[in-house]
Design a protein that fits this description.
mainly alpha, 13 helices
Length: 273
């Protein structure tokens, strides 16, 4: 064997025994060559370096598609879907937890309607809970803001009436309060504790009625004495209703129950019941 041939054989042996010296698998590099040119040059195919990575991606996507919920088309299919998502079989199946102290805002009629609507639109128990929490937070915010809202309305109404009545403001306010004592029942008194009590038109109406009541009282001493006794009680009620910070309006205040009982007794003195 010639020296040149011996050297070539040794070089070939060295190349075959190393990674860089091994012959490259041209089939693996050119795996896209068997594809039509439009597929081989597509950007989606170009991102795969070999057949194995392409196969793995296809298998993964097929598994993902198999786990998806098909869109319902019939009422029965919607019913089945809503059930899988957590909707109870009927509206009565919802558990409604009314926050403490908010029974007046979440009474049976309101909750019954809410259950029906929630069931009709396919809400789950978790979704209903979230809506209940949201509504409770809105009610709480409204209650917390009511004193400041009423105070602002009162200030605005006083400004309007003082500008209109001038020096007769105090006299007309007393007349309005007197009319409210005579004609007002517990429902009206409660209404006067809302925005209606800060409505200038309402205050002026009671002021006109109060002027007539005052004239009648001066004609009858006995009735006047009786009205004065009732007036004292009504004045106290008015003081309570005009004070948003009073324990009567704060269910969590330690004196709330006593305040409610006090108002009840005052109403009984004024209205005889």
């Amino acid at each position: 064997m010639y020296p040149e041939e011996q050297a070539d054989m040794e070089t070939q042996a060295t190349q075959d025994s190393t990674v860089l010296g091994s012959e490259v698998d041209s089939d693996n590099l050119d795996w896209k060559s068997s594809l039509p040119s439009d597929l081989a040059n597509d950007p989606t195919i170009a991102q795969f370096k070999d057949v194995e990575s392409l196969a793995k991606t296809v298998v993964h996507q097929q598994k993902q598609m198999g786990s998806r919920i098909p869109l319902p088309k019939t009422d029965d299919e919607y019913k089945e879907l809503y059930g899988k998502l957590g909707r109870p079989d009927d509206p009565a199946g919802y558990e409604m937890k009314v926050p403490e102290g908010m029974d007046a805002y979440f009474n049976d009629n309101i909750m019954g309607e809410f259950r029906n609507v929630a069931h009709n639109i396919g809400l789950s128990q978790n979704q209903v809970n979230a809506l209940m929490d949201y509504q409770a937070s809105m009610v709480t915010a409204e209650i917390d803001n009511q004193p400041s809202i009423l105070a602002a309305q009162k200030e605005e109404t006083e400004s309007v009436l003082k500008q209109e009545w001038g020096i007769d403001y105090d006299k007309n306010i007393r007349a309005a309060q007197r009319a409210l004592q005579v004609y007002g029942d517990p429902e009206i008194m409660e209404l006067m504790n809302t925005t209606a009590g800060n409505n200038p038109a309402v205050v002026k109406l009671f002021a006109r009625l109060g002027a007539e009541v005052t004239e009648d009282m001066t004609q009858n001493t006995q009735n006047n004495n009786l009205a004065t006794s009732r007036l004292d009680a009504q004045d106290e009620i008015s003081d309570i209703y005009s004070n948003p910070e009073h324990p009567y309006f704060n269910g969590s205040h330690p004196d709330h129950r006593a305040a409610v009982e006090k108002v009840r007794q005052l109403h009984e003195k004024v209205y005889g019941r």
